[in-house]
Structures are given as C-alpha cells and as structure tokens.
C-alpha cells in the first residue's frame, strides 16, 4: 500500500534536500570536476559547525554561540509569534554582551557587606508597623519630639564647620531614631555623636525617659546594690574552716596516720586585718547627676539600639586613671591597672559621662535658673540653694534670650559660652556624699542621751574626723574659668567663613576632649556633637599608675616579723661562741676551785 504524503511533508523533504545540497556544494568547492565525491553527513556537519564558530576579528564573538544564546532565551521565555521579533531578541543578546572600554558602571556583583547593609536599610525605609490598640487618645500619646532631630539640617551646619558624617548615614540615623522612640519610653532624644573603635564604631543617642520610667527604675535600684559582707558572715566562714580542719585531723588519726602521735595541735589564730577600706560612695539614682540622661548605642545603621547601664562613682574614678581604646564590642573585658569594675559597656558609659560633663556648652544667656515663663513686671528668680549649700541642678530656656553678636561668640576668652552639664567631683558624683556623717548635736545633749556603758564605748572608739566636702564649679559657669593643660588652652574658637559674614557661624572646639564641637548660628540655633575616639588629651605619654606600697595590714609580731638573714661571718662567730668550753687541768699540790669555794663558805658561817 503506497503511503500518502501531504503538502507539509513534501515541503519539509524539499527543505532538507536543499540544505543537504548546499552543504554538499560547500564541501565540493575546490575539488576536481572529474572526481566523484561521496557525501559524508558527519564530516559535513563538523565542517558547518566549524564555519559557524569562526570568531569575528572585531568583537571576538561567533555566530554559533550567538544563535545558541538567542535560542536559549527564546525557549526560556517562550513568547508568542517569535518569528515577528526574532531580530529584537538577537539585538538584546548582543547588547548584553557588548561592553565598551569607556564603560565605568559597576558590575551586577554586590559585595556581601553592601548587600547586608542594603537589607537593613530597606527595613528602615518601610513604614512603621501599626501599634497595638490602646484606649489612650492618639493626641495624648507622649512621643519624643522629632522636630529637633532633623539630621539633614544638622549635617548642613556641620558641613559649614568642616565636620560631619556621610549624608546617607545621617539620613538613616534619623530613621532609626524615629523607630526607637516608638519602642522605648523616651521623652526627649538627641543625637549625641559617634565614637570610633578599632573594630567597630558606636553611634550614640542621648535620651531623657518619662517620669514614670524613672520611678520604676529607682524602685528596683536598691535591689541591684550588693550588700557588703558583715563581720558575722566573716566569723561564720572562719568557724566553718576550723570545723573542716578538725574533721580532717580526726580522719587522719582514725585511719592510722596519727596512731603514734598525738592529736594535731590547733592552728595559730589568724592575725586580724587592721586595714579598713573606705566606704564606697553609692551610685546616683536614675534621672539625677551623672545618670540624669540615658544613652543608647549601636554599631551601625540598621543595628538594634542597646541601652547602656547607669554609671557608678567607682567606674568614673577608675576611668580617669586608665587610657584604653574602644573595640566596638560591648562585652569586651577591660584588662587594665587599676582593675576596671566592668566591661567595655560600663567603660563606654563612664567615658560618655565624662565627655558630656566637660564639653556640653551653650551661648551665654540661653538658659536661666528662673521660671520658664515670666510675665511682664516679674523678676528673674535667683538660684536657690539646696541642702548643704549646693546650688540648683536644673535650668530652663530663657524666654527673653537675646543672642549675642558673632564677634562676642568668637572672642578668644570664650566668656560668652557657659557649661550646661554638672561638674563631676573627684568622688565620682555630681553631689558630694559624706562617708562619715556626724550628727549636729552638742556634747552636753549627747552625754544626757547616752548611758554610762554607751559613754565608755564612745570614749574607747576613735572619733571620726570631719571631712571637708568636695566642691566644683556650678552650672552655667563661663568657659573662661576652665583650667588649661600646661600651655594648651582648653578651648579654641573660629569662624566658619571669613567671606560671608552674614551667614557665618561660630565653632567652638574642645582641646581637652578632641572631637567635641559646638556651633552656633547668629540666631538661636546651637548644637553639641562629639566625633572622636572617646579619649582625653594628655600632655605627656600615658604611664600606668605604679603599684601601691605594701600596707601594714597586720600588727607587728613574731608571726609576720621579717628578719635579716645572717651573713657567713655572723654564723661562724655564733658557732665559735657556742662551742663547749675545754676542761681545766688541775696540777699536783693545788686544790681544786670547788673545794676552795666550799672552805670560804664555811669561814663565812663561822664569823656569823
């Protein structure tokens, strides 16, 4: 039966025959006309593929690879009516492969660090998630004021001063602050600055919490303080050690080690320590003194904000005696002498407190101790004194503030700038704490109240010496009263521009804390910022404190008395002195000395 062939199959056979004929003709070019060549399909296919893979002298590409990429793209996308825009696919493939020598655009490869940073930035660019439903009126919700945290405006002023951070970082810091005030009970927030570390950096924001949050933190403040070890606990520990030693001695006697000997004698009593450490000053509660502000830090844009703990007086005192760079890891131990009580988290908080106390300034007259709102005819209140002669520790903006002219702000004496942070005393607090308070009672009244026994006890005890309270400069003290370090002035003042006087700003730089700046426009705008390593200027190379001398902690006695070792000559002399005496030889006809001594005694008795 003859198979039936339709028109489509006939057309396909003709196309294959034509293609085979073209390949055969290409292969027979250059051969002798009389020779009969038998076509070889495998050879012809290899020759055709080799021809299509011939590289171009201009671009280095070949038709075979180009057609392969075009067909792969078509099969991957599978568009409809591909024959209508096959040339468009070919052009796109060529454009993607073509890269001129003048192309300076980056490749599609993104480094892992930039990729992670982009993912963190995308989270900040998204709108904040809806807050939990609350019964409080949205208008009554107290959120921190963000109107004074326009980081791009701050960057504009800092660029005029010749300092600042990258624009992208400042923008995303503002977005991160906006997110922080919705998650923490913050009443006021301000960008404090940046501290550079060896591995990572610290971005720092300064906050004031809400009043109820301060009350909650101070309620649990006493629980966090570790109580000192009492004398009774020390005695209990000594008795426990004594019982353990007795038990060991009895076991040695029972098991044969002490059969031949007697019960081991008691150990000598341990000498009592006479040295008493000075009482440690308690830390100031949250919202007061050096803990008036709360600080949050993070290592970079997109990282979570971490709240730093409150500072203690001991941390402040030890931080003044050491000199160490930051690493960027809050859990890094601080290996220094004297030993710092904490890790880098606490050291960072102590340094921030020191920097803030020494570099937070403002133009003269911007703040006042009087009322915030004074009517006409009312006089400004004078600073009230607290208990103990301490001045007020709070101030408010002056509603009648008249900004001083630029020439006064640029005065080299810096008398038109004042401190706005409380001075930290050598004790490590802003308010002095009396370690040995003495009652203000007369001697006669004391004698009447105390009995005879109590009087004897009081007489036996040494009377505590009255300590002079530590004092420091009060708030809003002019910078002209700051002490200089040898020949280095504590502050430097300059103008941001010497050409455009109408728009110039005054820039004040701290020489004791390099990186601390404050600028002020000719209006009412001023800002403090710190961009540095968190270390204070030193006039000489840093030298750690020497070890203290050995203290006389125990009374002088044979148990602890030190004696000089004898020399060889001393030992030889001692040996000779303690040699046995030679016996005396008694000659004949002479009486021995003992007999003569006996006769003398008898004569004395007869005379009596």
UniProtKB/TrEMBL annotation:
GO terms for cellular component: radial spoke. It comes from Phaedon cochleariae. Residues 459-469 have a biased composition (Basic and acidic residues). Residues 375-387, 441-458, 590-608 have a biased composition (Acidic residues). It is found in: Cytoplasm, Cytoskeleton, Cilium axoneme. This is Radial spokehead-like protein. It comes from the Eukaryota. GO terms for biological process: axoneme assembly; cilium movement involved in cell motility. Residues 388-398 have a biased composition (Low complexity).
């Amino acid at each position: 039966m003859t198979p039936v062939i339709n028109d489509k199959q006939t057309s396909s056979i003709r196309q294959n025959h034509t293609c085979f004929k073209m390949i055969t003709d290409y292969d027979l070019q250059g051969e002798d006309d009389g020779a009969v060549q038998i076509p070889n399909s495998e050879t012809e296919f290899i020759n055709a593929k080799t021809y299509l893979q011939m590289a171009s002298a201009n671009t280095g590409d070949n038709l075979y690879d180009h057609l392969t990429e075009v067909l792969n793209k078509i099969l991957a996308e599978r568009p409809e009516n591909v024959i209508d825009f096959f040339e468009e696919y070919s052009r796109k493939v060529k454009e993607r492969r073509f890269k001129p020598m003048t192309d300076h655009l980056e490749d599609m490869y993104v480094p892992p660090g930039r990729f992670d940073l982009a993912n963190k930035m995308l989270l900040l660019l998204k709108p904040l998630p809806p807050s939990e439903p609350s019964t409080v009126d949205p208008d009554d919700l107290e959120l921190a004021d963000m109107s004074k945290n326009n980081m791009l405006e701050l960057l504009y002023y800092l660029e005029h001063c010749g300092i600042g951070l990258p624009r992208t970082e400042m923008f995303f810091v503002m977005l991160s602050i906006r997110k922080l005030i919705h998650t923490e009970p913050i009443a006021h927030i301000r960008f404090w600055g940046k501290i550079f570390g060896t591995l990572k950096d610290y971005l720092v924001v300064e906050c004031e919490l809400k009043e109820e949050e301060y009350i909650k933190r101070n309620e649990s403040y006493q629980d966090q303080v570790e109580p000192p070890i009492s004398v009774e606990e020390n005695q209990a520990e000594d008795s426990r050690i004594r019982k353990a030693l007795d038990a060991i001695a009895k076991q040695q006697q029972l098991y044969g080690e002490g059969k031949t000997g007697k019960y081991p004698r008691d150990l000598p009593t341990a000498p009592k320590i006479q040295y008493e450490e000075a009482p440690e000053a308690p830390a100031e509660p949250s919202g007061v003194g050096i803990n008036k502000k709360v600080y949050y830090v993070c290592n970079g844009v997109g990282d979570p904000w971490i709240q730093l703990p409150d500072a203690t007086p001991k941390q402040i005192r030890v931080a003044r005696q050491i000199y160490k760079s930051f690493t960027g890891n809050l859990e890094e131990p601080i290996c220094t002498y004297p030993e710092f009580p904490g890790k880098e988290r606490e050291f960072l908080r102590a340094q921030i407190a020191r920097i803030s106390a020494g570099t937070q300034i403002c133009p003269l007259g911007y703040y006042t101790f009087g009322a915030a709102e004074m009517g006409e005819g009312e006089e400004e209140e004078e600073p009230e004194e607290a208990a103990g002669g301490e001045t007020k520790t709070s101030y408010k903006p002056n509603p009648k503030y008249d900004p001083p002219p630029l020439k006064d702000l640029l005065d080299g004496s810096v008398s038109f700038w004042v401190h706005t942070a409380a001075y930290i005393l050598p004790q490590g607090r802003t308010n002095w704490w009396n370690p040995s308070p003495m009652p203000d009672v007369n001697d006669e009244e004391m004698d009447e109240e105390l009995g005879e026994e109590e009087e004897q006890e009081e007489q036996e005890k040494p009377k505590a010496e009255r300590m002079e309270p530590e004092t420091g400069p009060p708030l809003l003290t002019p910078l002209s009263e700051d002490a200089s370090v040898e020949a280095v002035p504590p502050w430097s003042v300059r103008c941001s521009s010497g050409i455009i006087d109408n728009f110039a700003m005054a820039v004040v730089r701290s020489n004791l804390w390099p990186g601390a700046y404050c600028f002020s426009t000719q209006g009412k705008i001023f800002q403090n910022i710190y961009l540095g390593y968190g270390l204070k200027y030193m006039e000489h190379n840093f030298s750690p404190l020497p070890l203290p001398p050995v203290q006389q902690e125990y009374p002088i006695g044979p148990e602890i008395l030190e004696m000089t070792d004898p020399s060889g000559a001393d030992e030889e002399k001692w040996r000779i002195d303690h040699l046995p005496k030679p016996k005396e030889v008694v000659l004949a006809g002479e009486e021995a000395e003992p007999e003569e001594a006996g006769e003398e005694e008898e004569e004395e008795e007869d005379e009596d």
